[in-house]
Design goal:
With 80 residues, this protein is mainly β.
Amino acid sequence: MTLPDRLSNDERSPFYNAQALERGVGILFNGKERKDVEEYCVSEGWIRVPAGNSKDRFGNPMTIKLKGKVEPFVPDGPAA
């Protein structure tokens, strides 16, 4: 299975892919594994992660964009 260039875990996003998320996706960001990624884009080199416990007016977590080297992978074993 090849992972998409851009993927979001928000169902309202046009980059949401249920099949990829069911299988499980791991992210290496600047050589370290991140487990809190909300969205990523390999070609543009960024990830979105929650900004603490803050929420927007609709109750969704506020996110910040971090730029760097993004490497998605399929983790071994079952999705957690």
